[in-house]
Amino acid sequence: MSYLVLARKWRPKTFDDIVGQDYITQTLKNAVSSGKTAHAFIFSGPRGVGKTSTARIVAKALNCEKGPTPDPCSECTFCQEISEGKSLDVIEIDAASHTGVNDVREIIENIKYLPTSGKNKIYIIDEAHMLSQSAFNALLKTLEEPPPHVLFILATTEVHKIPVTILSRCQRYDFKKVTVEEIRQQLKKITSKESVNIDDETLYLISQEADGSVRDSLSLMDQLIATFGSDIRHEEATSILGILDKALIKSVLKSVLENNPKSSIESLNNAIEKGISPRRFAEDLLKILRYSVLVKTCGKSVISELSEEEITDIEKLTSKVNAESLESLFNLMLEEAENIQKSFYPQMALELTLIKLSTMERIVSIEDIISKIESLSGSSKPGYGKSASMDEHRVDYKKKETPTDIEPTPIEKAPAPIEKPEDPKPPEPEAKESMPQGNQKVGFIKFIKDKKRILGTRLEQANEIVIEESRIRIICDMGSPGALYLKRQESKEALKNFSGEFYSRDMRIDIEETDSPAKKDGGEKMQSNNIKEQKAVNRKKIHDDPIVKEAEEIFGGRVIDIKPN
Q1: pLDDT (average), residues 30-46
Q2: Is the dihedral of CA 263, 269, 270, 275 positive or negative?
Q3: Quick one: which of 198, 352, 365, 407 is 20 to 30 A from 51 by CA?
Q4: Cβ–Cβ < 8 Å for 500, 507
């Protein structure tokens, strides 16, 4: 046959031609240049990333007429024979068909002979993991101490199947998958030289479909060239290769996020009419949900297999959806995708999955709930209105909280509270220092409630607040909702900032927990058998908590589970 497939025609001839394995090629070039080439290598990695091609280039670099050289000429007799697989000094062995110990014995018998015409005798064992255990054992001694003119290169896609005794005798190089962009650039370079007219969008789609394998991408390109010649259009390419058009999958994602099951089913029907299998559709939908979660939570820098344009499209589609909802959609699709792959009726299973995704309730984050409670509470609860009655309510509340040991001001000398409304601002630092501790606590709590109502409410629920020179001790019942809330890092930081603002100096915040009176009275009996009772008490406290009750009223919900923070 005169036609040579692209994967063979454009096989790398030098280290610089290897795509996406820069650190490996640079290390091998340095080793050849310095004359410090190891006697055995293991090249491991996925299919089609250049393992065997690199092994051949190493052989050329060592046997080239100008060598050893990191830049073999690819023109001398030795280089051409190696490229064509005709060299007597470079022996390529397929381990899948030479698995036995007798095949290894033949190698051991032949390595003692010097090279026929080159400088080194090189054995390239492809798919080395297919060798039997006996064959590996027979190779151990020779692999550890081969003759100076012999080099072994073992290539494998499943390095975990290679015995540790073999790995320890070889220099190991792990080849990685080639990125989508690197494959696209290579395809663009090859199609330009082959005079093939193809869109960048199609090249990008082929690069993604190749899943990190340059050889696979070239095989797909061969198929398109054989079908359409030198002029390839995007719509025709997607139909012949069975690749799902990204516009369709984005349309489905948009329908799901907009809770539109009808539109999502219509997009599915369009894809099936174009020959896309339901299983493939489910796989691609799972991938785009994964990208959505990654972009939302980690940013676009963690995704290398998508173009900037595609990432921007995903950001726009998911801009109004929080990360929690996207995670729920992904988890549901991950579970259903497995069922679709196993189902005898994949289209029906996929249709039901799309309906589930499109009608799924969105999750509201805790921060949004708290923010909404604060905003609604600020406009509806006493203490935030402008009427005189509400002001009186606040004054009465403060009088109630003031300790009784503070000497009251005689009634006839007290100023009229109606004529002079209460100043919401805290007094000056000098006044704070001279105020009794009880008044300080009341003023401090009020200041916190003005800044952040829910934090002030939790502060009120504390058993005791001790204000020292540079420290505020807040003592709460162990396991109470107030203690759990105040011990959160963001709560402590907010208290530290507000206290610094109130007292005009840095204050240390200590949250201390103490046993409730009921627990103290129980003594040793409760110490041994009241764990379940304490949990029940804590659950009741949380159920009866005014903040929780208010949240239930605002959102029309109910508490179904309580978990420790």
Answers
A1: 91
A2: positive
A3: 198
A4: yes
Among 255-264, 306-315, 378-387, 489-498, the minimum mean pLDDT is found in 378-387
Query: Is 471 found in the same domain as 345?
Result: no
pLDDT for position 419: 47
Verify that 13 and 128 share a domain, yes or no: yes
Mean of the pLDDT values across residues 385-393? Answer: 37
For the record, the structure tokens of 216 come out as: 């696979």
Residue 444 burial class via C-beta count within 10 angstroms: exposed 0-12, middle 13-18, buried 19 and up: buried
pLDDT at 475 (0 to 100): 87
One domain for residues 19 and 119: yes
DSSP assignment string, 506-551: --EEEEEEE--HHHHHHTHHHHHH-HHHHHHHHHHHHHH-HHHHHH
pLDDT above 60 for 303: yes
Task: Please report, for the domain that includes residue 201, its CATH number.
Answer: 1.10.8.60
237 and 224 within one domain: yes
- Asked if 122 and 229 sit in the same domain, the reply is no
List the domain range (segments joined by +) for residue 198: 180-241
Residue 368 in any domain: the answer is: no
C-beta separation of 201 from 232 below 8 A: no
Which range among 326-330, 345-349, 513-517, 531-535 shows the weakest confidence by mean pLDDT?
531-535
Rounded Cα distance, 245 and 298, in Å:
26
Cβ–Cβ < 8 Å for 226, 262: no
Q: Supply the pTM of this predicted model.
A: 0.59
Extract the runs of DSSP E, i.e. beta strands, from 381-521: 464-467, 471-477, 508-514
CATH number of the domain within which 286 lies: 1.20.272.10
CA distances to 377, 435, 509, 556 from 548, in Å:
12, 35, 25, 11
Average predicted confidence (pLDDT) for the chain: 80
Average pLDDT over residues 517-536: 53
For the chain, how many structural domains are there in total? 5
Residue 85's nearest CA partner among 28, 130, 131, 124 is 124
Are 87 and 78 a contacting pair, CB within 8 Å?
A: yes
Residue 237 and residue 134 in one domain: no
> Does 392 map to a domain?
no
- 509 and 522 share a domain? no
